[in-house]
Amino acid sequence: MQSKKWWGFIKDPVFGYIHFTPEEKNVIDTKTFQRLIRIRQLAGAEYVYPGANHTRFEHSIGVMYIAGELAKNLECMSAEEINEIRLAGLLHDIGHGAFSHIFETVLHKFFKINHEDMTRKLIREGELKDIIKDAGYEPEKISRLAIGQLKEKNKEYLDQILRSTVDADKMDYIVRDSYHTGAGYSADVWRLIYTMEAVNNKLSVSSTAIYTLEAFLLARVESFKSIYFHKTARAAQIMIGKALVNAYEENPFFSPNNLDEYIELNDYTVWSILKNSKRAAKIIDDLEHRRLLKSVYENIVITKEKLASRIFSKEQVKTSIEREIAVEAGVSEDDVLIDSPLVPSVPYASSSKDERFEVPIFDKKTSNLLESGGETSKIIEAMKGYLNVLRVYTTAENREKVRKAALKILSSEPYELKIAT
């Protein structure tokens, strides 16, 4: 069990002084965790927001802190559970590869896994395993709690602290990303934390904080539209993703089964690999000269279904449509790219296929659960769908030809039906 004494503190620009225990320090000081200093939280966004150079390191520290504060506010949480949730929060993003979510392109394409699979693997099999054991905890349990998949009976709230519509991860990144980008979208996470309770085993928000909850969810929506799905940031991210795939096809530079190899991957080491890859070097040169792809077609649909993400998540479908547009435009297939990010386009709902849009609201006077947030607030009800953003990108010189081709093809059957219904 972790000691109750703090070893020291970190000065965080967002939340101020964050204390940590000797056991948490042992985790932070590992090579596995220190690599997060060299993995940017919003890789690609710096082409739009120069201040967006913060990393997974400070985000992970922030999630540890928020998760711990949220847990301490729940009367049902034991001291040991609070320590476990802090540790899980600290490690929740440990599996990210270089350039954060962009690296999912390689993990998914070549291995059919994602960073959460790597998170569990690094906690259970890497150097962290013994450190967690020495602290008195079970690596297997921490690995499942870190991705919100503990699934302990009658304790849904344990998973929901790190994986739900209103969780510690989102509370940190909405505030932190807004701070570093200067986008200006923030939320009063402390009022949310101090009004949350575990009711009927579910993490629930007090009816007295409805307006705060609405503001939080709206801030998330605006963050997705202005930061995460900004067309220029996405252009840079698409280019990095393509460079990663090209370089890996040319020379596989890591295996997820080799953890020592995996933890050597960060934004700097992989950028060097890409620069020295024959198939990726041109893309990197374009990025270094800010010759970015241009968005020539955009279709934004708010719906109850995962339209764009469902249609274009299949590589063969996306490739087929890209080829069709390229032929119509008379350009190379390599010059047409459909934006279908692996991070689901769901700011109006959840960030995971396993995470339902659910915001239980309880009556502060009676401690009874009311209907779901959507029944209590018209604003929350309106956010129960999916924001699908479909874009087509091409090079600057092909902009007009591809724009016309994309408009012709994607406005005709069957694509119009698939996109707009």
TrEMBL record:
Q: PROSITE patterns recorded for this chain?
A: HD
The positions making up the signal sequence are none
Question: HD domain: which residues?
Answer: 56-174
Q: Which InterPro entries match?
A: dGTPase-like, HD/PDEase_dom, HD_assoc_2, HD_domain
Q: Which Pfam families match?
A: HD, HD_assoc_2
Q: Which domain of life is it from?
A: Archaea
GO BP term (any one): dGTP catabolic process
What Gene3D superfamilies has UniProt attached to this entry? Hypothetical protein af1432
Q: Protein name, please?
A: HD domain-containing protein
The UniProt GO MF terms for this protein read: dGTPase activity
State the organism of origin. Answer: Odinarchaeota yellowstonii (strain LCB_4)
What the entry lists under SMART domains is as follows:
HDc
